[in-house]
Amino acid sequence: MLGAALRRCSVAAAAAARASPRGLLHPVSTPGPAAAVQSVRCYSHGSHETDEEFDARWVTYFNKPDIDAWELRKGMNTLVGYDLVPEPKIIDAALRACRRLNDFASAVRILEVVKVRQSRTS
């Protein structure tokens, strides 16, 4: 398959070299239709989330009754990735999820993250 593509490319290059008096390095350009220029603005059309909506989204995430340990860690890693100190109601929901899962290690890590985040902002 690759060999066939290379052969087609070399045949096309040889044909272009024969057609051009200057060879392969200086191909003859034929004038074509003028290119249409379109200006595009790339704005984000997404909705902006308020602080209350952000908090409610994370509280409902951690309050899911069927949350497992992996989802808890994933949610905390995502939350830690933001440049903020989580609200107490988010931390409360995360710690209650740890209690439902009987996961003491995750609860300690959540408290450590809050301690480190709080010390950086103070």
UniProtKB/TrEMBL annotation:
Species, as recorded: Phyllostomus discolor (pale spear-nosed bat)
GO MF entries: metal ion binding
Pfam families: COX5A
Stated name of the protein: Cytochrome c oxidase subunit 5A, mitochondrial
Record's GO cellular component terms: mitochondrial inner membrane; respiratory chain complex IV
Pathway: Energy metabolism; oxidative phosphorylation
Transmembrane segments: none
Known function: Component of the cytochrome c oxidase, the last enzyme in the mitochondrial electron transport chain which drives oxidative phosphorylation. The respiratory chain contains 3 multisubunit complexes succinate dehydrogenase (complex II, CII), ubiquinol-cytochrome c oxidoreductase (cytochrome b-c1 complex, complex III, CIII) and cytochrome c oxidase (complex IV, CIV), that cooperate to transfer electrons derived from NADH and succinate to molecular oxygen, creating an electrochemical gradient over the inner membrane that drives transmembrane transport and the ATP synthase.
Keywords, ordered alphabetically: Heme, Iron, Membrane, Metal-binding, Mitochondrion, Mitochondrion inner membrane, Transit peptide
Subunit (UniProt): Component of the cytochrome c oxidase (complex IV, CIV), a multisubunit enzyme composed of a catalytic core of 3 subunits and several supernumerary subunits. The complex exists as a monomer or a dimer and forms supercomplexes (SCs) in the inner mitochondrial membrane with ubiquinol-cytochrome c oxidoreductase (cytochrome b-c1 complex, complex III, CIII).
